[in-house]
Specification:
Structural class: alpha/beta
Largest sheet: 6 strands, mixed
Helix content: 25-40%
Length: 181
């Protein structure tokens, strides 16, 4: 299995945490992985991008046009990183807008057979009194669509290895809500 991910958002939205969970899931499944992070102005709400490659890769960076999945924790960051998505790839976007992608991006993505999953993950996570778990709502949606790959159990085991018991329960709840989106 070879998967290449771009995880992007703004500082404080959990880009690095989501990357860590995906890496732990790879480890749970005995898969090699390598990654890299670009922090930018993360402490001031600036752009954060993380690259994660699962499989036998020699370098950590996903090249443009190679990512099978982009997780965008902020709609504007989805647009900023579209050059990474491959033909037939999928973009998971946390947004309250039903208008993603807008023209001219919509036409470009349609020509490249790129599909989008739009979820108001922040709203769902806020309902759970855990707005920081929006990233795991997106992950749940991704996992629910997997035919060959990560299992729900392997993701739950990975989540269970992070934080204290209260945080873990909230994170698992957000992940499970994403499975049903």
């Amino acid at each position: 299995m070879e998967l290449e991910f771009i995880i992007t958002g703004l500082g404080g939205q959990g880009v690095l945490f989501l990357t860590r969970i995906l890496a732990l899931v790879a480890r749970e499944n005995n898969l090699p992985f390598i990654g890299s992070e670009v922090h930018g102005m993360s402490q001031r709400g600036g752009s954060v991008v993380s690259h994660l490659r699962i499989g036998n890769f020699s370098g950590p960076l996903v090249r443009e046009g190679r990512a099978c999945v982009i997780f965008a924790l902020e709609e504007s960051e989805a647009y900023r990183n579209l050059s990474f998505i491959r033909n037939g790839g999928k973009i998971y976007v946390d947004t309250c807008s039903n208008n993603f992608p807008v023209d001219p991006f919509k036409n470009i993505l349609e020509k490249r057979n790129v599909s989008s999953v739009i979820i108001n993950a922040t709203s769902i996570a806020t309902e759970l009194s855990s707005p920081a778990s929006a990233n795991l709502v997106l992950l749940g949606s991704f996992i629910s669509g997997q035919k060959d790959g990560f299992t729900v159990d392997s993701v739950e085991r990975a989540i269970s290895k992070t934080g204290n018991s209260q945080v873990i329960e909230k994170n698992l709840e957000a992940f499970r809500r994403g499975l049903n989106q």
